Structures are given as structure tokens and as C-alpha cells.
TrEMBL record:
Its EC number is 3.1.2.2. This is Acyl-coenzyme A thioesterase THEM4. Belongs to the THEM4/THEM5 thioesterase family. It comes from Actinacidiphila oryziradicis. Its main location: membrane. It catalyses: decanoyl-CoA + H2O = decanoate + CoA + H(+); (9Z)-octadecenoyl-CoA + H2O = (9Z)-octadecenoate + CoA + H(+); octanoyl-CoA + H2O = octanoate + CoA + H(+); dodecanoyl-CoA + H2O = dodecanoate + CoA + H(+). InterPro entries: HotDog_dom_sf, THEM4/THEM5_acyl-CoA_thioest, Thioestr_dom. Residues 1-66 are annotated as: Disordered. Residues 114-173 form the Thioesterase domain. The keyword Cell membrane applies.
Amino acid sequence: MSAPVKGGERRRKIPGTNGHTAGKDPAEGRVSRVSGATTDSPGRPGLTPPPDAGPPVRHPAAPAPGEPLGAHYDLCFGCGGGQPHGLHVRSYAGEGVTVTAEFTVQPAHQGAPGLAHGGILVSALDETLGSVNWLLQAIAVTGRLETDFVRPVPVGTTLHLRAECTAVAGRKIYSSAVGRIGSPDGPVAVRADAVFIRVKVEHFTKNGRPDEVKVAMTDPDARKVARAFEVNP
Ligand SMILES: CCCCCCCCCCCC(=O)SCCNC(=O)CCNC(=O)[C@H](O)C(C)(C)COP(=O)(O)OP(=O)(O)OC[C@H]1O[C@@H](n2cnc3c(N)ncnc32)[C@H](O)[C@@H]1OP(=O)(O)O
């Protein structure tokens, strides 16, 4: 069965499978858009890197593997410590251009009774995927993000997320993520592929609240400022 995805597309069924590749856990077989094994919408920029895409290069100043990445903005819904309604996703630099993260589903995150709302899970994936950009030291915003919901995620679960940048082409940064229940080796609950687009700081000052961006840029926590704003074209 092909899974419905954002934007009304359906994933192409892989011949000889039930829509997933072989494996004990059907969730293991999700075919990444980045692999090119699925189709992108005609006429819409998709999630398959173009032929001129290259591998991502970890920035020399990126935090060492295992280092917490902290929040890029205190009021960020995904990672901000000062955001009472937020997810409080905690992320850590991984090897290469990868990030791991943890997110614990709270009662405020329910959709069905006792289960995480799908949009909340997408937010946790988006946050984790976005954190990868810091290892490239790129400011980027989500252009497109497609998610497979593989298993329900009960309230109280800690979701262990892992995201990896797979390719870069010009301003486009291609990444994939997976979220597992209870431990880094737990059953897969969600998967996502995304493309982020690099932007300049003006993206936020022109479209958001310039005064708050200025305040964020003068935060005494230099690391936080670097995470949010450092650009190395
Ligand atoms: C205190 C503050 C802290 C600052 C903290 C900084 C980190 C913030 C992180 C927060 C993350 C978020 O929540 S982001 C929030 C959700 N996302 C957004 O709000 C983004 C809204 N969209 C936009 O603003 C815009 O559409 C952009 C910036 C994505 C693209 O517009 P643009 O700059 O004019 O670029 P454009 O020429 O159209 O496209 C450039 C290239 O990207 C491709 N491209 C463009 N859109 C897409 C797309 N949806 N899917 C695939 N590919 C796309 C194009 O085909 C093109 O490829 P080619 O021709 O080059 O091949």
C-alpha cells in the first residue's frame, strides 16, 4: 500500500513489494526520496537531488560528535527552552553530517487519546532535520518535508531521532530522518525526507520580527548566535 504524503502525492509502489522493500520490519524498508527510488511531482521541485548535487561537507567548526547543539532560538517551538508550549527537542551533533535528538511526547501533544498528534511528530522531525544544517553552518529554512507515519507513538514515549544530510546542490540541502520508539535501536515510528533552502539573515528580518532577530543576534550566548546566524557560503 502506498502511503499518503504531504501535497497529495502517493509514493510509487516498488514492484514485488507491498510498498516497502524487504526486511523484518516493514518500517525498515521505506524507500527514501533521496535515493531517487520514488517519484517527485511533475513540475514541482522535489526531494530527489539533481545530478549536479554533491555530498555534504561537515564544516570544520561544527560541534564535535556528542556535543549538545542547544537551541537556535529560545522561543523556537521545536527546541527553545523559553517556549512553554514547545517540544523541547534536545539534539546532539553526530558523526559526519548527522544529528541525533530526543523528544518526549507530553499529554499536550495528543491527537487521539493517549497518542501523539501527527503534526507534532512532523515538527519534531523538522526540528531534527533543521539542526543538521548547523553542521554545515548554513542558515536554511524548510522548503519541503514528507513524512511516513509508521507506528502510533504513545504519550510518555521518548522518540529517538536521527537525521542525516545526504546531498547539497546550490542553496538546496537534502536530508532524511528517522524516529524510533524508546531507544536509538527501537522500532521505527516515523520517517521523513526534506529539502532545506539556504537563506540570508534578511529572510528573518524582512519576513519576521526584526527587533527580536536583533535581540537574538546580541544574545550573550555566542554559541546560540553562531548556531542561528553563521553563514559560510
Ligand atoms: C531569531 C531568528 C533565528 C534564526 C534561526 C535560523 C534557523 C531557523 C530554522 C527554522 C526552520 C523553520 O521553521 S523554517 C519554517 C518553514 N519554512 C518556511 O517558512 C519557508 C517559506 N518559504 C520561503 O521563504 C521561500 O519559498 C524559500 C526561501 C524556501 C525559497 O524562496 P527563494 O529564496 O525565493 O528561492 P527560490 O529561488 O524560489 O528557490 C531556490 C532553490 O530552491 C528550490 N526550492 C524552493 N522551494 C522549494 C521547495 N518547496 N521544495 C523543493 N525545492 C525548492 C528552487 O527550485 C530553487 O532551486 P534551483 O533553481 O536553485 O535549482
